[in-house]
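The instructor's notes for this session suggest beginning with a concrete chain rather than abstract definitions. Hand out the sequence below and ask the class to guess, before any prediction is shown, which regions might be ordered.
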Amino acid sequence: MPKYATCLIVPKIHGEKAITLVNKLQILNKELNIQRNQKLIYIPLTHTPSVDQLKILDEQIANLKISEHTFTEKKKTKKTLAELLEDKLPPYLIASLPHAIDFIGDIAVTEIPPELEAYKSAIGEAILETYQNVRTVLAKAGAITGTFRLREFTIIAGEPTTETIHKEFGCQYHVDLAKAYYSPRLSHEHNRIASLVEDGETIVDLFAGVGPFSILIAKTHKNVKVYAVDVNPHAIMLLKKNVRLNRVENRVYPILGDAKEVVEKKLHGVADRVIMNLPEKAIEFVDATCKAIKPSGGIVHFYGFVNLSKSLEDTKHDFTEAVEKNGRELKAISFSRLVRATAPYEWQAVIDAEIH
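After discussion, reveal the predicted structure:
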């Protein structure tokens, strides 16, 4: 928006010197843009220079003039979280502010350290102000636990909800963080696995959750069949909504039940590819995977945890041993890597393996 202000007008040749001097005298209006034409520079001032300031300007810059001029306002940069909270927190606590924030749809999820517990509402409001698309701020209130891999949350700002719609790689997902597990930090893995699938495959997603692997695969491949299994009824309910939302009804088939029982009863020997994204307990389901893979063989994407006492090589060894114990041969591990940090000195890892 144009704004009328007092300014210093100088020949262009003296421009840089004049700007430096005006800034040194602390009368430069930094909220307005300096204007230029072919001959002159118009430097916006906070106020008309005092007699002493004008004397200094006259001594160092020739042919200057004080006048009024129309300027454009500079675009205001958003304040950081620390800047918004610097007058609400003791200075020694600013360094403890959370650096990691997960964005799931219009929900922000963060972790409040114990020393900032008394300031969590102020932190939540600052997050709302910093990120305009966020309507709810949740603070983690415990670890991921239980068969359904759920975590407790505290609503610290915004609308009191744990439900949202999250967008990822052209897909949309109904998510309820209080009822079904979801991690936006796995988005690269969702896309990587989908890119490896070939048309005509049958995929078994043993721990499908709300469907980020299954639905993206079906969305990017027209001729696939994905059996999406989960033991959590809330996850399956959301998965069914997501199947309809993304229009993949004829390619993704949600199945409620324990992975071992479902494979035994319905999915024996059907899979070209099995996804095992249950890092806490995936090793316990290698038998189900070996049964689900076609007799001719297939690909397995196995996820586990790696830490200081258990390396990626240890995880590979345990997985290979479990496969062989179930009467299958692990022909090759084509890919393995650490996917993401999950705790101090702990990472989620993936192993892509070819099983005969």
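Then share the key points. The longest helix spans residues 312-325. The chain has three domains: 2-72, 81-161, 179-355.
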